[in-house]
Amino acid sequence: MNENPADLAPELCVLIAAVLGLVNGLFLPRTRQWRVAVICAAGLVAGLAVAGVAATRPDLMAFDAFEIDPVTHVTRIVVFGSTLLVVILAAGQVRDHPRESEHYTLILLSALGTVALGATSDLLVLVAAYLLASIPAYALAGFGKDAPGTEAALKYYLMGALLGVVMLGGVTLLFGVGRGTAYPMLREGFADASPAVVAVGVVALLAGPLFKAGAVPGHFWVPDVTEGAPPAVAAFVTTVPKIGAFAALYRFGAETSPGGWAVLVAVIAAVTMTLGNLAAFGQDNVRRLLAYSTVSQAGYLLVPVAMAGRTDLAEPAVLYYLAAYAVTNVGAFAVVLAAGRDDLAGYTGLLRRSPLLGLSLVVCLLGLVGTPPTAVFVGKVLMFGAALDGGHAWLAVVAAVNTVASVFYYLRWIIPLFGRRTGRPAPRPARGASTVAVVAAVLSVLLGVGSGIALTAS
Amino acid sequence: MLTLVIFLPLAVALALPGVPRRAVPWTWLGVSVVELALVAAMWAAHGTGGGTSFETDARWIPSVRAGYHVGVDGLSLPLLALTAVLFATCAVYSLRNTHRVRAFAMLFLFLETVCLGLFAALDLLLFFVFFDLSIVGMYFVILLWGHEDRARSALKFFLYTFLGSLVLLLGFIGLYLGADPHTFDMVELTRTPPFAGSPGLAGLTLLAVGAGLAIKTPVVPFHTWLPPAHTDAPAAGSAVLAGVMLKMGTYGLVRIAMPLLPDAWRRYALVMLVVGLVSVLYGAFVALAQDNVKRLVAYTSVNHMGYIVLALGAAGYAAGDTDARRLAVTGAVTQMVSHGLVTGALFLLCGVLHDRAGSYDIGRFGGVARRAPVFAGLVAVAAFASLGLPGLSGFIAEFQIFAGTIGTGTAATAVTGALAVAGILVTAALFLRVLHLVVLGQPGELTPRVTDVRRPELAALVPLLALSLLIGVAPRVLLDTIEPLSAAVVALVGR
User: Fold this and answer.
1) Which of B55, B105, B111 is nearest to B83 (CA)?
2) Interhelix angle for B76-93 vs B455-473, to 10°?
3) For labelling, which of A56, A81, B303, B352 has a CA lying 20 to 30 Å from the CA of A15?
4) A209-239: pLDDT as tens digits
5) Which residues have C-beta within 8 Å of that of residue B147, sequence separation ≥ 6?
6) DSSP characters over B19-86
7) What is the mean pLDDT of residues A247-257?
8) Residues 6+ apart with CB under 8 A from B106
9) Angstrom distance (rounded) from CA B256 to CA B252
10) pTM of the model
């Protein structure tokens, strides 16, 4: 058995940064707590670098539960990368806040849980990772201690606790059926177990990851948390935990291949994307709009998850779409932070006031639609390809129709940008968030144009 | 060289924010003229032989075997030239434009890159990238510079054609998965057509590709996005939309659907014939009933694109006479060029009318010839070119289409071809009606506001009509370029 801690070096970098940040936060005066942000960012950068090096080594298994393979590499890089962007966003928001250092530490711990979620191939570790990813996020959602934040945190926590318990039930059932919790063991166990019991167990198990992914039926928290939590936290919870959740779902589907997996997940995918899109139509608050948009994106992401093990395109599709989605979604949230407005009307004339910021928003929103040459476009092509190749053409058609429908509400946000603003001038956009928005927009285009390189590397 | 031609407009567009406002229209015009010269040089270098010139094949997404593969041949050269001409014309026409000039020029340069790239693409994914971007670009043109109910028209245009593009994408992925080994490269796919031995899947893929391209073309019953988009778009936008972007649909049929799915194309050739015939007749009759001159021109586009689909359908009848089928394909490609030039001119003329009087209503004009003789003359020439008067490009194209379709010799092609000739009659009637009501007759209520064409407008319109005349009188160069290609396409469909 391989028990070399060096194999977990990227996670250790981030963990050390989180602990150092917390300890430093205890002793630093309130006005100098920004140093904790620097420590955390440095930890993430180090984690990214080590993960990049690790990605060039052959696959291996650490501690019998932590798989180090392309899925883990991509999860690490995308999680750490998008967390880094979120930390920069958050730094502008919680500057000189009484609990500034806790904010960064919580973000890092939740990100760590997310990576573990995506990397593990053991149900027990999956549960532990689920808790590590969730609990700091509950605290973050209520960080503002205001009414909407409290409501968001409570809703988030109750949903998470409920679905977490359901997941535990599923784990217990599957443990009974498979006589073990490691995926290879489960795979053998499923072969000669009663299909009905396996089905019940798998459905119950899905509750947890679907909650983290913000997919139906675990999506109820998404709009409330996105609207009620501080915006940087909203960007975090709608982006980062999803990455780990989809990686975990894909890994479970591909490595245990329970019967009926494709149909079950395909139906969830179709319902999720349709519901997300329909709910987004009438939103006038951009954060709620983005929240429902992330629900529909979760639906598209579930398509290749459903095709796990049925086609070679499924793995690149999941991984590439995750990276593309993370960058684009953080970009859109960064614009919301920079503009400081939540209503659609507040974006009138943004393109004239600050052309770069407006253009970034246009790129990110068209990117979420799947317009070439942005990264999500390539992700969508792979997703459609996986659905067709996996023999689920109907799912590809549903996804295509949903994509067209989604154009409508993204355009509702784009059109005012070109308008002429009347009334009092709006405040200047925040510098840090604007930079993040521009960087994310540029990244999403670069990732799309350079998709060949990115796909070969993974 | 080809890559430079494609991306030069985009590069200039990106540099345009640094150009002083006064110099923007002239920079735009300069680039367009350079583009025109470069495309002409490429045509001269390619000559009239077969095969592909200026080919570049770079790796792009090797894991799905999609590449940056571009090249020009007898099909793409005429369309590249048409694109360069029309965009240069729009640059000239817009010299006096004052509303957000810089953004307008940037968007048009972006669109020029997109259109040139599409007609040069030899990779399905690359083709799709340009196809989709053309929709985004045109959406903003209609939204920001259109008039009347522009937001609604632009949204309808975006949603409808975006749906078409996604259906097309599904078809492309079908082609990719049907090929062995999987690839998006058109040249490889042409060499070994996908779905050998599974006609059902090939039929489904043709349905997806065909429907996606049919929406763009557009043919009846997928044409409903076209009239509002055209009516509310600015004149230059309409000219590019009708002149260049509608060709993307029929170009795709010749470039992708026919050579890549030959079996399915032959099997469903009758569908193409019927769809083409319905578009021809429906487009002509609905145009006859229009009182808005821009809607009228939009519906004649449906009619003219219908001839192309008809001819391509006839080319799928393997039992028919080979020479006639080649003639039909050549006619179809000629019609793409001819329609681009003539409809571009017609839309710019509509733009002149709207600029002066603020209306497109035929009933409110009359006797314009006395107030604006040059304008009236240009309208007359464009109308005659559009209805297919001998001596102008429309005649050359439509004659070949009918000769080829009817000459194929099977019962279906002969009947549909003969019925489609009626379309010409209706088109003639409707253009004579326009000439009668707008140009001649008693002065209408808006006639006093119509002044004659200004210099930039004249400079934009005359080359378009002169080229139409040139093709009508001396079509040899154009036809010689197209013919090797149509022979190749007919051979590919026939295998």
Assistant:
1) B111
2) 160
3) A56
4) 999 999 988 899 999 999 999 999 999 999 9
5) B232, B234, B354
6) S-GGGHHHHHHHHHHHHHHHHHHHHHHHTT-SS-EEEEEEEEEGGGTEEEEEEE-TTHHHHHHHHHHH
7) 93
8) B13, B16, B17
9) 5
10) 0.93
Strands (E), B94-212: none
For residue A362, what pLDDT is reported?
Answer: 94
**Are the Cβ atoms of B173 and A407 closer than 8 angstroms?**
no
For residue A313, what is the nearest residue in chain B, using CA coordinates?
B64
pLDDT tens-digit map of B150-185: 889 999 999 999 999 999 999 999 999 998 889 999
* pLDDT classification of B409: cutoffs 50, 70, 90: confident
- B6: its two tokens: 């494609």
Q: In whole angstroms, what is the distance from residue A69 CA to residue A65 CA?
A: 12
Contact between A22 and A33 under an 8 Å Cβ cutoff? The reply is no
Q: Which tokens sit at A399?
A: 């996804």
Q: Output the pLDDT for position A424.
A: 62
Which of A316, A400, A456 lies nearest to residue B166, judging by beta carbons? A400
pLDDT in tens, B224-279: 999 999 999 999 999 999 999 999 999 999 999 999 999 999 999 999 999 999 99
d(C-alpha B189, C-alpha B182), whole Å = 9
Over 80: is that where the pLDDT of A427 sits? no
Cβ atoms of A44 and A108 closer than 8 Å: yes
Nearest to B58 by CA among B50, B47, B67: B67
A80 within 8 A of A10, measured Cβ to Cβ: yes
Residue type, A36: V
* A450 has a chain B CB within 8 A of its CB: no
Please give the tally of structural domains in chain A. Answer: 1
Contacts of B158 in chain A (CB under 8 A): 407, 411
8 A C-beta contact, residue B261 and residue B271: no
Are the beta carbons of B48 and B477 closer than 8 angstroms?
A: yes
Residue A357: inside a domain: yes
Q: Which residues of B lie closer than 8 Å to A, measured between beta carbons?
A: 59-64, 66, 125, 128-129, 132-133, 136, 143-144, 151, 155, 158-159, 162-163, 166-167, 169-170, 173-174, 176-177
Give the C-alpha separation, B131 to A372, whole Å.
9
**Cα(B178)–Cα(B129) distance, integer angstroms:** 21
Report the DSSP beta bridge partners of residue A60: A68
In this prediction, does ipTM exceed 0.85?
Answer: yes
Structure token pair of residue A409: 């509400």
Q: What's the domain range around A355?
A: 260-458
- Start-to-end CA distance of chain A, whole Å, equals 26
Residue B185 DSSP class: B
Q: How many residues does chain A have?
A: 458
Using CA atoms, how far apart are residues B277 and B365, in angstroms rounded to an integer? 33
Q: Would A210 be classed as within a structural domain?
A: no
Q: What is the pLDDT of residue A426?
A: 67
In terms of Cα–Cα distance, which of A347, A358, A341 is closest to A438?
A358
Residue B259 to residue B252: CA distance in whole angstroms? 10
The CA distance from B150 to the nearest CA of chain A, in Å, is 12
- Does some domain include residue A387? yes
Q: Which residue from B339, B282, B273, B258 is spatially nearest to B305, judged by alpha carbons?
A: B339
Q: If you ran DSSP here, which 8-state letter would residue B111 be given?
A: H
Question: Does the residue A168 lie in any domain?
Answer: no
Rounded Cα gap, residues A169 and A164, in angstroms? 9
Lowest mean pLDDT among A426-430, B1-5, B113-117, B313-317: A426-430
Closest CA to A108 of A38, A161, A55: A38
Q: For position B92, what pLDDT does the model report?
A: 94
The backbone torsions φ and ψ at residue A57, rounded to the nearest 5 degrees and listed phi first, read: -90, 160
Which residue is listed with tokens 């399915």?
B264
Residues 6+ apart with CB under 8 A from A109: A18, A132, A136
Neighbour-count burial of A457, counting CB atoms closer than 10 A to its CB (0-12 exposed, 13-18 middle, 19+ buried): middle
- From the CB of residue A420, how many other CB atoms can be counted at a distance below 10 Å? 7
Location of structure tokens 């080919």: B55
Q: What are phi and psi of B191, to 5 degrees?
A: -65, -50
